[in-house]
Amino acid sequence: MLSRYQGAGVRRKLQLGIVGCGDIAGYLALLARLNPGIALAACCDIAEDRLQRFAKRFRIPYTFQSYEAMLNEQALDAVYLAVPHHLHAAMLHQAIDRQIPALVEKPITRTLAEARDVVSRAHERGVKIAVNYQYRYDSGCFVLARAVQQGALGRIYHARINLAWRREMDYFQQASWHASLQTSGGGTLITQGSHLLDLILWALGEPPRYAYGSTARLKFSQVEVEDLAQAVLEMPSGALVQISSALLSPRERPLQIEIYGERGIGLYSDRPWPRTRFLGIRPPRVRLPVGGVHALQRSLEAFRRWIQEDAPYLTPAEQTLNVLATIEAIYRSARTGRKELVELENCE
Fold it and tell me: What CATH number matches the domain at 136-279+316-341, 3.40.50.1860, 3.40.30.10, 3.40.50.720, 3.30.360.10?
């Protein structure tokens, strides 16, 4: 029997709708245009000028200012959501109710409670929801994670994550939702640091038990969210993980991940290109599950294969719940000044 994506021996292109026509959506749309298995069928944005510019730039035939209208009027195979965090949950529910798979930008939702609700509904309806934690498809990060998962470093003692980015006030002015706790759920930790937090938890294969964290507003004191977050996570194995995420570095630095095991060390940096060096060991060679020159390109192609061919996707929604549980524990710790339990119920 032919699947809904096949006919006359030729696979039909995945009909993708893009929601939110900002910068990240532009990168994904460009990569989608280069993917022979994807057709950009429609796009949606509340700002008419931005919507029309986006549609013209990427030659998208149908435009909508209403997400509901796009879902009702277009025969879409999937949607990509690049919208403010507080809109994720409702938009995902609408897609699930119409049996339309979705790829959503991180985090899956603004809060853990919202995320659990989305995952539960998706499972009940049998709808595939993916979260674009694209660093799992980064060549250097993938090699590092697999080395840890395969035991090449031996028992893991500790790890460090450092994200030191530079942003100016226009980051908040051009997208004001970033500045509000109500619409963003937090600052640099949930928006940028969660990428590498997801990667390290995936590599270690377990969620933390406790988090001790602190946040600050040092450069952007006029906004509600942190521009600096630091935390220590206690893992069930006894390993400790340090994370630092910042938007206030005077000079932007490479992303860095360091993992220290009993047999060796893994060191990741994304500049001048993504790569991992190993000290003391030579891990088994591994291959990325999909090809491409960039992590976002691989993530998009893997999502297409997941929808059309049922090939595994590395970040299905349920696997990202532990990231939000950890972030919420760090934020609680920053408020209370105490070590906080990571609430793992229904997160595994």
Answer: 3.30.360.10
